[in-house]
Amino acid sequence: MPVQMRRPRTLALIAVFKFFKSALLVALAFALLHLRHPQVSEHFVSWLRAFPVATGHQLISHLIETILGTTERTIGVFGGIALGYAVLYAIEGFGLWRNAHWAEYLTVVTTSLLVPIEVWEIFRHPTAMKGLALVINLAIVAYLVHLLRAERHGGAIDKTVAGSPSRHS
Asked: Which of 97, 127, 144 is the last residue of a domain?
């Protein structure tokens, strides 16, 4: 009978979270790349204006004006950036799912790099969603740092399954 996996379930949850963010960014990237075409962006703007909430709602009005004032190239660049982050999150998710040691380090570094930007955004325009995103990202970093320190100081958590590749692969 195979040895039961004793990895923290939290790593699997973080991996699923990364896969979810990756899927959302892929959808955003494809939407942005479609918006590069003038006919599509005009149709999208008219569709947004048809919503009753669009009249007098500052966020929707700002979104419409931003779309109208953005060049095809800029929309393409944002689509490419979204796709790049989607690939990064998918790699992190895959590595965390497979309990790869490198994925913990990668996730700590990449998530930590975004924290100053998130803090700056919260101070500029505070919202509950921005605060929640910051708390989740800080919790992920703290948890992974805790795991990495435990391993380094001899309190390693057995995260392998009999017959599976080593954790340090």
From this structure: 97
